[in-house]
Amino acid sequence: MGKRDGTPGPLRVALSASIGNLLEWYDFFIYGTAAALVFNKLFFSGLSPAVGTVAAFATLAVGYVIRPLGGIVFGHIGDRYGRKKALYLTLGLMGLTTFGIGILPTNAVIGQSAAVGLVVLRAVQGLALGGEMGNAQTLTVEHAPPGRRGFYGSFLHAGSFFGLVIGTTIFAILSLLPDEQFLSWGWRLPFLIGVLIAGVGLFLRRAVTEPEQHAKLREAGLVPKLPVVKVIRHHYKEVLVATVLSGGPNTIFYMVSVFALSYGTTQFHVSRTMMLTLVTIAVALLAATIPGWGALSDRLGRSGLLIAGLLGMSAFIFVFFALLATGNSWLIMLGAVLVLGLGGAVVNGIAPAFYCELFPADVRSSAVSLGQQLAGVVGGFAPLVASAIVTRDATGWGWIAAYCAVLGVLGAIAVTFGRNHWDDVRIQESKSTEQEPV
């Protein structure tokens, strides 16, 4: 795992980055679960149940709106001052804001100030997460040897989804509490635990070193003073590819893991605990199979597999909602496994390396962060859009599935454009090593 000179090997770096990523996404995902199950009752109690749910999902979307700014800020820090420094800051911020949500008084105690506080804390969460994924991906992929970047890069998304598994498992256990206790204090426990595990993540990241390639660029003064400016000027096409590619999977994932929790319990009368359990099983399978697809992409190439995965997710989302409408737990789990455990695993196993290989090292953190976080805005609004649709037509899941499928197909098309730049921007020394700094 480690090299003879004492620096950590690629597997150790991948595990360290992914474990920290797991903890950070745990914090972020439990917010989505709480928004689906309790926030409409506790922070928007003056509204009707349907409108309260829309308002709760709107606060979820706030985190996604702010994520591109986080990608720019922490991508800049990662490119200019090092990936590790950026990752320390993002994880620390996430832990503090998650703890803040866990102790935040509700609408019954402080009135409308509760909703305002929730929005502010959610915005800071989004800022932190916006800078996490791009820096973690570049750190891991840059440490990986040629021919193994797909495998090692896949650990990042595997860690993210294991974070969701932990969060939803805790919520599933707590949901067994009587409603009064769950709404009074049970929902707070996952948020309070978040600050403790964030501390563990900071400890684990202490041994991670900066990638040699990027460290040399910084020491030579060859990193642009404003990396995002160079990205916009010279790599905007690749950013667009990354954005469109990410939009479909993000949207489909949040439809299944967040919106479906609320929709399944209210419209099809599936129990809260059962919905959480079904989503947890599907996401656990997704996380466990991701590294295998990353490794396969190292052998077979990334583009063809990515396209197959995106088209699969686009088709399976119709199957998922059709099976959700039956109210049958086994059929719902089958639908979730197809869309996430199969189609989603292919895409998420390959995407980290694909994103990183689109950009040169001197601006990679900024570019990868910006592309994915712009797509996160699309995904973040997905539960809000879906809630608005079912508010008008409670059985209108076909429109929701079509919305997801269109984004997935657009992502598959975007992959073909990314492949056109493949040989020119495969991970290598930036051309800026032969030029003056921007």
UniProtKB/TrEMBL annotation:
Topology in membrane: Multi-pass membrane protein
Cell compartment(s), UniProt: Cell membrane
GO cellular component: plasma membrane
Entry keyword set: Cell membrane, Membrane, Transmembrane, Transmembrane helix, Transport
Keyword Cell membrane appears in the UniProt entry: yes
Name of one Pfam family that matches: MFS_1
Principal place of residence: membrane
Gene3D superfamilies assigned to the protein according to its UniProt record, in alphabetical order: MFS general substrate transporter like domains (1.20.1250.20)
Keyword Transport attached: yes
GO molecular-function term, one example from the UniProt record: transmembrane transporter activity
Chain ranges passing through the membrane: 50-74, 86-104, 151-177, 189-208, 239-261, 273-293, 305-324, 330-355, 367-390, 396-417
InterPro entries: MFS, MFS_dom, MFS_trans_sf, Sugar_transporter_CS
Domain Major facilitator superfamily (MFS) profile as annotated: residue spans: 13-423
PANTHER family referenced in this protein's UniProt entry, alphabetically: SHIKIMATE TRANSPORTER
Listed name of the protein: MHS family MFS transporter
Organism: Amycolatopsis acidicola
